[in-house]
Amino acid sequence: MHETPDPAEPSAEESLSALGPRLRAARHGRNWTLEELAERAGMSPSTLSRLESGKRQATLELLLPLTRLLGVSLDDLLAPTARDPRVRRAAIRKRGRTIAPLTREESATRAFKITFHPDAPQGDPRVHEGQEWLYVLSGRLRLTLGERETVLEPGEAAEFTTTIPHLMRAEGDRPAEVISIFNASGERMHVTGAE
């Protein structure tokens, strides 16, 4: 019996043609130049450029180091365009915070729901490149920016340059839930680098 392919499913050629743009998007999500990623992966920038533009055939030998460095899977690069839009990344708890990712790892902008628990240990202000935006969902959040301290209530937002030493913690005896948006550098500092 002959099966008719589902017209909603992309062909192998369509999946392969999407690989280059997805590879480029994942690299941009890490804020790496073509040269930076090529050097880290041990390949020439021209090889990587040809992979991203679809002018070079993708092989496992070329793709595996790239997927490891970019934190994506081969399925992410070859997945159909109409993939499940839901973000399925596990929340982590570090240093008195519960951090739930709201965007895919390869996204250029990173969004998180962060719960600051009132029993969190007192940390030190942090500094990194970029901008940060946050919105308080519930509880009260104490934001320290340099020498200035501000207590944010539910429904209030803040935006600041992250080159200013900054620290956030729950104010009072209730957790503070916050939506926070920052770039890859901010994620490394607040999420990956959290001890």
Protein architecture, described:
- The chain folds into 2 domains: 12-78, 434 Repressor (Amino-terminal Domain); 92-192, Sandwich (Jelly Rolls).
- The chain has 6 helices and 9 strands.
- The protein has helices at residues 12-29, 34-41, 45-53, 60-70, 74-78, 184-192; strands at 92-94, 97-101, 110-116, 131-138, 141-145, 148-152, 157-161, 166-170, 176-182.
- The strands form 2 sheets. Strands 1-2-3-9-4-7 form a 6-stranded antiparallel beta sheet.
- A hairpin with a 2-residue loop joins β5 (141-145) and β6.
- α1 packs across α3 (45-53) and α2 (34-41) crosses α3.
- The longest helix is centred in the N-terminal third of the chain and has 18 residues, at 12-29.
Which parts are unreliable, with pLDDT below 50 for 5 consecutive residues or more? 1-14
Order of SSEs, N→C? Answer: HHHHHEEEEEEEEEH
At CATH's second level, what is the architecture of the largest domain? Answer: Sandwich
CATH topology of the largest domain: Jelly Rolls
Number of domains: 2
* Portion of residues within helices: 25-40%
* Spatial gap, N to C terminus: 58 Å
Strand content: 25-35%
Q: Strands of the largest sheet, in order across it?
A: 1-2-3-9-4-7
CATH C-level name of the largest domain = Mainly Beta
Per CATH, the superfamily of the largest domain is Jelly Rolls
Radius of gyration: 20 Å
Mean pLDDT: 83
Class from helix and strand fractions:
alpha+beta
Shape, per Cα inertia axes: elongated
Q: What characterizes the major β-sheet?
A: 6 strands, antiparallel
Number of beta-strand segments: 9
Helix tally equals: 6
